[in-house]
Amino acid sequence: MQFHSLYNMKRLIIFISLVLFKVPISFSQHQQSKPTLNFIVMGDWGRNGADHQKQVAAQMGKTATSLRANFIISTGDNFYPSGVISEHDPLWKVSYEDIYTDFSLQWDWYPVLGNHDYKSNPDAQVAYSKISRRWKMPARYYSKKVPINGDTTKQVLFVFIDTNPLIPEFYKNSEYGPNVRSQDSTAQKQWMERVLSDKSPNILYKIVVGHHPPFTAGGRTNAYDTKAVRSSLLTLLEKHKVDFYLAGHEHSLQHLVSTGKTEYFISGAASEITPVHKIPEAKFAASEYGFFVFSMDEKTAQVQAINHKGKVIYQYSKERE
Asked: Cβ–Cβ contacts within 10 Å for residue 189, how many?
């Protein structure tokens, strides 16, 4: 009798925890049943805690704890309104270190640069990697192979790119131009070709992360930057059978599918949201504060969109081909 009472009490505690903290239940169960690679994708966030940045950060902490997240990916526009001027800029403290304080968010962060980051000194974000334990940006673009549950025979190839030099209009822009003109977009695309050409049987998934999306159900559907990135990257992504392209820039949560293999996720709602509308490519588009979480094993990639209140507003699962 005592055993059953104790068992029922434990079940009650678990149920209350799920209700109060809004744990994404399906991810928690999947994580326990199979070895997985778990990570959060967020973007467009650095506002000194304003406009729901703190609320999203708090929910990220709860989700990362439940998920046992291995790392966090930032899709750019890391510091508003104009990036940082050095690795010692006060914004590192008030917009990053003092906001993402949960222990579960102290693991590695893999960021890319957004257009707002280009307004000051984008290389300052590279330099911060040398003094931060968790900020991992070794260059303006870079790649990393991550094993699933530590198994090096089952890896995910992440390619983190800088989309700003891929946009011709930026070279004439008074704010972006000085930092764009020093970059060689052809060299970056040649580097992408080499990295994505890796045919190792150990690579089960290929994921590219860049700030600007090639498709969007937001306000930039036909904008010059969307068109430029689409023109520059689509052939490359399809040629190398990239599974997912992760972006920000639009302040919303989106999942888009075009005619090819690559699927597109926009996670740019970690502070501030903007409207979305219907387009043929959009499987999901929500003007809500939040982020995506991915859980990947050797056969399946599971994705959920979670808003700042902890509600799962979208779920998606894709079997590996």
From this structure: 15
Burial (0-12, 13-18, 19+ Cβ within 10 Å), 21: middle
Give residue 282's Cα distance to chain centre: 18
pLDDT tens, 109-146? 999 999 999 999 999 999 999 999 999 999 999 999 99
The pTM score is: 0.89
Query: d(Cα 14, Cα 244) in Å, to the nearest integer?
Result: 34
In what order do the strands lie in the sheet containing 312-319? 108-111, 71-74, 37-42, 290-296, 300-307, 312-319
Residue 104 Rama label (left phi>0; alpha psi -120 to 50; beta): alpha
What's the topology of domain 24-319? Purple Acid Phosphatase; chain A, domain 2 (3.60.21)
